[in-house]
Write a structure and sequence with these properties.
Layout lengths: L12 H6 L5 H14 L5 E4 L6 H11 L7 E5 L5 H9 E2 L11 E2 L1 H4 L4 E5 L6 H13 L1 E2 L8 E2 L3 E6 L3 H6 L5 H7 L2 E4 L9 H13 L7 E2 L1 H9 L5 H15 L4 E2 L1 H7 L4 H13 L24 H19 L4 H7 L4 H11 L7
Parallel strand pairs: 1-8, 1-9, 2-5, 5-8, 10-11
Antiparallel strand pairs: 3-4, 6-7
Helix pairs in contact: 2-3, 9-11, 14-15, 15-16
The protein binds adenosine-5'-triphosphate and magnesium ion.
Magnesium ion (MG) binds next to helix 3.
């Protein structure tokens, strides 16, 4: 099938501001965003971690006629499976133990706007069936509720997984895939669009540098960044520039600074990790590995254990996603950096940069 460019798909301001880059692949993505924005089509965004999938979803919303409506993001991989159904579809009072009041689900929250289902590839099989039904009926039924509620919600989903393989392995329903991927958009890894690196560096320098304390990159540093393999994609680049601005305000980034920023040698990794610990107060006690390992068997529900296990899992996951950058993981978890560091100490978690 050949895609006919819609003549009126002129790049809007929002998409240009949100999706920086002039490489051929990012221009195609911007074009697709503008073409699909004004339609009701479900969009599935694929691409490696940190490549900008959520940015694309936000750009589609911002360019659509739903822009003044809500944009609601749900990370399907981060919500415990027992809670996912009521999180998405809501529940009635008394629907299950703990349902002390009626609650609207995220589908309803996003009514008139866009629901962004992130990490859709992690959705449990039983929820896939329920989601398919919602997409077919365009209505949701709250857990414990009877009457379906009509919803006018645009669905955008994203995954960093190879969904084709997940379908082959029967981990993801093919019928759901076709519902979600009416309009697929793929974001290539940053290493496949290196032309964007200087523009993104400029963008993040402007975003992070304080007036009067701007930093300058030496030509050698710029060359090194352009040639770097970017395993963490745009998120990693953003982190590096944010770190550079914090560590060397008003300075020039040369080869030595680059070595620290790119955490090349293990010793340097250790230095920076220690610097991170040192910047948090009070100083860390020796690691106390309190990782909750095994669920206590039988007996009453151990809420403390469940909370600790939940917290531990999400902290480890956030650090992994953010390449071990504590500040970024804290933002991802909506925590103060110092709070996250305290929790990491409590569970004996050490950031493990790539
Ligand atoms: N083209 C771009 N222009 C400007 N900023 C970008 C661009 N792409 C990504 N970013 C920034 O990079 C970071 C990572 O992007 P985003 O969260 O959209 O990635 P993702 O693909 O959803 O990652 P993950 O799979 O880990 O959820 C964000 O801070 C975002 O603002
Ligand atoms: Mg994302």
């Amino acid at each position: 099938m050949t895609l006919a460019w819609k003549p009126d798909a002129i790049e809007g301001r929002a998409v240009r501001e949100l999706l920086i880059g002039e490489s051929a692949p990012i221009r195609v993505v911007r074009r697709l965003v503008c073409q699909v924005a004004s339609t009701a089509a479900s969009v599935l965004i694929t691409g490696p971690s940190g490549s900008g999938k959520e940015m694309v979803a936000r750009a589609i919303h911002a360019e659509s006629n739903r822009a003044s409506g809500p944009f609601v993001a749900v990370n399907c991989g981060a919500i415990p499976r027992d809670l996912l159904e009521s999180e998405l579809f809501g529940h009635e009072k008394g629907a299950f133990t703990g349902a002390v009041s009626q609650m609207r689900g995220r589908f309803e929250d996003a009514n008139g706007g866009t629901l962004f289902l992130d990490e859709i590839g992690d959705m449990p099989a039983d929820m896939q069936v329920k989601l398919l039904r919602v997409l077919e009926d365009r209505s949701v039924t709250r857990v414990g509720g009877r009457a379906p509620i009509r919803i006018d919600t645009r669905i955008i989903s994203a995954t960093h997984r190879d969904i084709g393989t997940a379908i082959e392995d029967q981990k993801f329903r093919e019928d759901l895939y076709y519902r979600l991927a009416v309009f697929p958009v793929h974001l290539p890894a940053l290493a496949e669009r290196r032309d964007d690196v200087p523009l993104l560096i400029d963008h993040f320098l402007r975003l992070f540098a304080e007036p009067g304390r701007e930093i300058t990159l030496s030509p050698a540093a710029l060359d090194e960044l352009c040639a770097y393999r970017w395993p963490g994609n745009v998120r990693e680049l953003r982190n590096i520039i944010e770190r550079a601005v914090i560590l060397f305000p008003g300075g020039v980034i040369g080869p030595d600074e680059m070595a620290l920023l790119l955490r090349r040698a293990p010793a340097e990794k250790r230095d920076e990790r220690e610097a991170l610990w040192a910047s948090a107060s009070p100083p860390p006690p020796p690691a106390r590995p309190e990782t909750p390992k095994e669920k206590p068997m039988g007996g009453p529900i151990d809420l403390k254990w469940m909370v600790a296990e939940f917290e531990h899992r999400h902290i480890v996951d956030a650090l992994r996603r953010c390449n071990g950058v504590v500040a970024d993981a804290a933002r991802h978890l909506s925590l103060q950096r110092t709070t996250l560091i305290e929790k990491m100490k409590k569970y004996g978690i050490v950031p493990n940069p790539v």
